[in-house]
Fold:
Amino acid sequence: MTQRRFVLSLLDSLPSSLSAPQLYAAVIDALPDAILVVAGLEREDLTGRRYVMANAAARELLRITAEEGILLSAVRDPVVLGAVDKALFDDVDAEGVYETTGAQSRSLRVRARPLGLGRDGSQLALLMFHDETEVRRVEKTRVDFLANASHELRTPLASLSGFIETLRGHARDDPAAREKFLGIMQAQADRMARLIADLTSLSRIELDEHVAPRGVVDLVLVVGEAVEAAAPLGAPRRVKLDWRPCSQISVSVRGERDQIVQVVQNLLDNAIKYSPDGAAVRIELQSGLTDLAAAASPEGVPRLSLVAPDPSPESYAALRIADLGPGIARQNLPRLSERFYRVDGQKSGARSGTGLGLAIVKHIINRHRGGLVVASAEGEGSIFTAYFPMSGAPENVVKAS
Structure:
């Protein structure tokens, strides 16, 4: 729906008993874009710039509670302040891009327009914020997908071309060579299929990353099903899955079931691949934790938070998956969730991955406003902790010790 159509539909829904000023105020307050009216007397007086009106969208965006106040207390971005100054004191339209910070960053187009003089003689300007996050994400996702796909598909395609050329040449009449090369070609084709599937999945997740999921998922049920499905993967090397659910029969978290399943499956898959033969992978679930308690790790083990939610009084459920694999050196921890990154000297065995698993996990957890922590040291295995906000009001929240 366009802004014009939105306003017209809003006018039709408002009571006819409202006066003209009340009507205008109600319309502006209900607009989806953040809008402020800013007043200023002198260019040199930075603290003298005040917002004298802020609609509901602006109060939510800038986290302010009042409709009036000092502009610097609401926004300090130099792009925004520069646009305001041009509108107030140069009497010209100005615009720029405002990037918000936090776990869920947003990209907004800022426009400032002069409104003339106020009753007290101050200059007035209209400041508007239009959310362009989705548009910019679509463009970035398209560029990243093309760049990643072209780069990562180049090697298996070159391999396939080489083997096809060989089969057309001296290996044409050699049955053993044909069988060997066809097997390698099949493996390369399978890898390309997995790579395209993971890139497509990652692109979809990134597009919706700023939109919080609204569903409710039973984490106990999801993890139990994922453990049961993953058990056969470790059977050939006698890797056992030690599943330790929490005391609650069910643990409800806010989220999208399919994506949470992806998180659990990817973390389990990595733990199984890097575990030595005959080892056990420990899977634990805890609920009713603060963010600090959920992100806690064993003392003395290097740890790093790959995803962290914005501070809030939320209650979290934490899934910890620990393996006894080769572990990860401290300097490699920050790069674990990068696309296609692999730790030097570590091989993932016959079931080689695409290098996108942890990148997918990171973006899914960020979308769910949760956290991802890794604790690991060389020769001591790894512990990955994924935690999600629980559904409903926080009760009996456990604090970090």
